[in-house]
Protein backbone atom coordinates (compact mmCIF):
# COMPACT_ATOMS: atom_id res chain seq x y z
CA UNK A 1 0.00 0.00 0.00
CA UNK A 2 1.26 3.46 -0.86
CA UNK A 3 2.64 5.27 2.18
CA UNK A 4 0.76 8.52 1.65
CA UNK A 5 -2.57 6.72 1.46
CA UNK A 6 -1.84 4.78 4.61
CA UNK A 7 -0.51 7.66 6.69
CA UNK A 8 -2.61 10.48 5.30
CA UNK A 9 0.54 12.60 4.97
CA UNK A 10 0.19 15.56 2.62
CA UNK A 11 3.20 17.14 0.91
CA UNK A 12 4.49 20.45 2.33
CA UNK A 13 3.76 22.52 -0.75
CA UNK A 14 0.04 22.06 -0.05
CA UNK A 15 0.05 22.43 3.74
CA UNK A 16 2.70 25.07 4.52
CA UNK A 17 0.71 28.21 5.22
CA UNK A 18 3.76 30.47 5.05
CA UNK A 19 4.75 29.25 1.61
CA UNK A 20 2.54 30.78 -1.06
CA UNK A 21 1.34 28.14 -3.53
CA UNK A 22 -0.70 29.93 -6.17
CA UNK A 23 -0.01 30.26 -9.89
CA UNK A 24 1.30 33.34 -11.64
CA UNK A 25 -1.07 35.19 -13.99
CA UNK A 26 -1.67 33.59 -17.38
CA UNK A 27 -0.20 36.55 -19.25
CA UNK A 28 3.01 36.24 -17.27
CA UNK A 29 3.13 32.53 -17.93
CA UNK A 30 2.98 33.45 -21.62
CA UNK A 31 5.88 35.82 -21.14
CA UNK A 32 7.77 33.09 -19.35
CA UNK A 33 7.35 30.75 -22.30
CA UNK A 34 8.76 33.47 -24.54
CA UNK A 35 11.58 34.06 -22.07
CA UNK A 36 13.52 30.88 -22.74
CA UNK A 37 11.68 27.92 -21.26
CA UNK A 38 13.18 24.58 -22.31
CA UNK A 39 11.21 22.09 -24.35
CA UNK A 40 12.50 18.81 -22.95
CA UNK A 41 10.04 16.11 -21.96
CA UNK A 42 8.29 16.76 -18.66
CA UNK A 43 9.04 14.47 -15.69
CA UNK A 44 6.18 15.98 -13.72
CA UNK A 45 3.26 13.85 -14.85
CA UNK A 46 1.83 11.24 -12.54
CA UNK A 47 -1.08 10.39 -10.31
CA UNK A 48 -2.15 11.43 -6.83
CA UNK A 49 -3.06 14.71 -5.17
CA UNK A 50 0.33 16.37 -5.28
CA UNK A 51 0.87 15.46 -8.93
CA UNK A 52 -2.27 17.14 -10.18
CA UNK A 53 -0.26 20.06 -11.57
CA UNK A 54 -0.15 20.76 -15.30
CA UNK A 55 1.99 23.02 -17.44
CA UNK A 56 -0.86 24.70 -19.29
CA UNK A 57 -1.60 28.39 -18.85
CA UNK A 58 -5.12 27.67 -17.66
CA UNK A 59 -4.19 25.26 -14.86
CA UNK A 60 -5.36 26.19 -11.37
CA UNK A 61 -4.74 24.58 -8.01
CA UNK A 62 -7.67 24.07 -5.66
CA UNK A 63 -7.80 26.48 -2.73
CA UNK A 64 -4.78 28.38 -4.02
CA UNK A 65 -4.24 32.12 -4.24
CA UNK A 66 -4.62 33.46 -7.77
CA UNK A 67 -1.43 35.56 -7.36
CA UNK A 68 -3.25 38.52 -8.92
CA UNK A 69 -2.64 40.84 -5.92
CA UNK A 70 -6.06 42.42 -6.29
CA UNK A 71 -9.35 42.57 -4.40
CA UNK A 72 -11.26 40.30 -6.77
CA UNK A 73 -10.44 37.11 -4.90
CA UNK A 74 -10.39 35.81 -1.36
CA UNK A 75 -6.62 35.46 -1.08
CA UNK A 76 -4.63 37.45 1.44
CA UNK A 77 -1.28 37.55 -0.35
CA UNK A 78 0.55 40.88 -0.23
CA UNK A 79 1.90 42.28 -3.45
CA UNK A 80 5.67 42.70 -3.13
CA UNK A 81 7.16 46.10 -3.87
CA UNK A 82 9.47 46.73 -6.80
CA UNK A 83 12.31 47.13 -4.31
CA UNK A 84 11.54 43.73 -2.80
CA UNK A 85 11.37 42.08 -6.21
CA UNK A 86 14.67 43.68 -7.25
CA UNK A 87 16.35 42.17 -4.20
CA UNK A 88 15.73 38.75 -5.71
CA UNK A 89 18.31 39.52 -8.40
CA UNK A 90 21.01 40.35 -5.86
CA UNK A 91 21.44 36.78 -4.70
CA UNK A 92 19.77 33.40 -4.89
CA UNK A 93 19.63 33.28 -1.10
CA UNK A 94 17.49 36.44 -1.00
CA UNK A 95 15.12 34.96 -3.56
CA UNK A 96 14.75 31.71 -1.65
CA UNK A 97 14.22 33.43 1.70
CA UNK A 98 11.27 35.36 0.29
CA UNK A 99 7.94 33.41 0.14
CA UNK A 100 6.66 35.29 -2.93
CA UNK A 101 10.05 34.96 -4.58
CA UNK A 102 10.12 31.22 -3.97
CA UNK A 103 6.70 30.86 -5.52
CA UNK A 104 7.48 32.82 -8.68
CA UNK A 105 10.74 30.92 -9.08
CA UNK A 106 8.87 27.67 -8.56
CA UNK A 107 6.47 28.58 -11.37
CA UNK A 108 9.48 29.34 -13.56
CA UNK A 109 10.89 25.91 -12.76
CA UNK A 110 7.53 24.39 -13.62
CA UNK A 111 7.71 25.92 -17.09
CA UNK A 112 11.25 24.55 -17.44
CA UNK A 113 9.99 21.12 -16.37
CA UNK A 114 12.20 21.09 -13.27
CA UNK A 115 9.70 21.98 -10.53
CA UNK A 116 10.64 18.78 -8.71
CA UNK A 117 13.85 20.49 -7.58
CA UNK A 118 11.92 23.12 -5.62
CA UNK A 119 9.37 20.59 -4.35
CA UNK A 120 12.19 18.39 -3.05
CA UNK A 121 13.87 21.36 -1.35
CA UNK A 122 10.58 22.40 0.29
CA UNK A 123 9.89 18.86 1.45
CA UNK A 124 13.34 18.71 3.07
CA UNK A 125 12.71 22.03 4.82
CA UNK A 126 9.42 20.66 6.12
CA UNK A 127 11.11 17.50 7.39
CA UNK A 128 13.68 19.54 9.32
CA UNK A 129 10.88 21.08 11.40
CA UNK A 130 9.36 17.73 12.35
CA UNK A 131 9.80 16.40 15.89
CA UNK A 132 7.45 13.42 15.94
CA UNK A 133 9.37 10.20 15.20
CA UNK A 134 6.51 8.54 13.36
CA UNK A 135 5.95 11.64 11.21
CA UNK A 136 9.67 11.86 10.50
CA UNK A 137 9.64 8.30 9.19
CA UNK A 138 6.56 8.97 7.05
CA UNK A 139 7.92 12.19 5.59
CA UNK A 140 11.36 10.72 4.95
CA UNK A 141 9.87 7.78 3.10
CA UNK A 142 7.61 10.11 1.16
CA UNK A 143 10.61 12.18 0.05
CA UNK A 144 12.52 9.04 -0.88
CA UNK A 145 9.65 7.61 -2.92
CA UNK A 146 8.91 10.83 -4.78
CA UNK A 147 12.34 12.38 -5.32
CA UNK A 148 15.13 9.85 -4.67
CA UNK A 149 13.82 6.57 -6.06
CA UNK A 150 14.91 5.81 -9.62
CA UNK A 151 11.36 4.61 -10.24
CA UNK A 152 9.87 8.03 -9.57
CA UNK A 153 8.97 10.37 -12.46
CA UNK A 154 10.03 13.22 -10.16
CA UNK A 155 13.48 11.85 -9.37
CA UNK A 156 16.00 14.64 -8.75
CA UNK A 157 19.57 14.55 -10.02
CA UNK A 158 21.96 13.40 -7.28
CA UNK A 159 25.39 11.83 -7.40
CA UNK A 160 26.01 8.21 -6.39
CA UNK A 161 27.73 9.11 -3.11
CA UNK A 162 24.77 11.09 -1.82
CA UNK A 163 22.33 8.39 -2.89
CA UNK A 164 24.32 5.76 -1.04
CA UNK A 165 24.28 7.84 2.15
CA UNK A 166 20.52 8.34 1.89
CA UNK A 167 19.92 4.63 1.37
CA UNK A 168 21.79 3.88 4.60
CA UNK A 169 20.02 6.60 6.57
CA UNK A 170 16.60 5.32 5.50
CA UNK A 171 17.06 2.51 8.04
CA UNK A 172 16.70 5.10 10.80
CA UNK A 173 15.37 8.37 9.33
CA UNK A 174 16.21 11.72 10.93
CA UNK A 175 15.01 15.28 10.19
CA UNK A 176 18.34 16.25 8.60
CA UNK A 177 19.06 13.06 6.67
CA UNK A 178 18.65 14.74 3.26
CA UNK A 179 20.91 17.75 3.94
CA UNK A 180 23.63 16.75 1.47
CA UNK A 181 21.06 16.04 -1.22
CA UNK A 182 19.23 19.27 -0.47
CA UNK A 183 22.46 21.24 -0.83
CA UNK A 184 23.17 19.61 -4.19
CA UNK A 185 19.73 20.53 -5.52
CA UNK A 186 19.96 24.05 -4.07
CA UNK A 187 23.29 24.49 -5.85
CA UNK A 188 21.83 23.10 -9.07
CA UNK A 189 18.95 25.59 -9.00
CA UNK A 190 21.36 28.41 -8.17
CA UNK A 191 23.80 27.71 -10.98
CA UNK A 192 21.43 26.44 -13.64
CA UNK A 193 17.93 27.90 -13.31
CA UNK A 194 18.42 31.10 -11.31
CA UNK A 195 20.42 33.02 -13.97
CA UNK A 196 17.76 32.25 -16.58
CA UNK A 197 15.01 33.32 -14.18
CA UNK A 198 16.65 36.70 -13.50
CA UNK A 199 17.03 37.39 -17.24
CA UNK A 200 13.55 36.13 -18.13
CA UNK A 201 10.62 38.25 -19.28
CA UNK A 202 8.54 37.02 -16.36
CA UNK A 203 10.96 38.53 -13.84
CA UNK A 204 11.19 41.78 -15.81
CA UNK A 205 7.40 41.99 -15.95
CA UNK A 206 7.23 41.59 -12.17
CA UNK A 207 9.55 44.56 -11.75
CA UNK A 208 7.49 46.64 -14.16
CA UNK A 209 4.24 45.64 -12.50
CA UNK A 210 5.31 45.69 -8.85
CA UNK A 211 4.08 48.25 -6.33
CA UNK A 212 6.24 51.21 -5.36
CA UNK A 213 6.86 52.06 -1.73
CA UNK A 214 4.64 54.68 -0.12
CA UNK A 215 7.46 57.24 -0.21
CA UNK A 216 7.49 57.04 -4.00
CA UNK A 217 3.73 57.08 -4.47
TrEMBL record:
Chain segments annotated as coiled-coil in the UniProt record: none
Domain RGS, chain residue ranges per copy: 91-207
Gene, per the UniProt record: LOC106530166
Disordered: region residues: 38-59
Top-rank lineage group of the source organism: Eukaryota
Name of the featured protein: Regulator of G-protein signaling 17
SMART domains named in the record: RGS
Family matches, as Pfam families: RGS
Amino acid sequence: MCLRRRSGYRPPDLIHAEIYAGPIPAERVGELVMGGGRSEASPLSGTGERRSFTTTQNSQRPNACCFCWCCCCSCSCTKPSVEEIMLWSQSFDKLMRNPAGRNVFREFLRMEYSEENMLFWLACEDLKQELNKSAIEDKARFIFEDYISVLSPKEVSLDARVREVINKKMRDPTPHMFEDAQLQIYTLMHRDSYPRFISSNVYKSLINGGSRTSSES
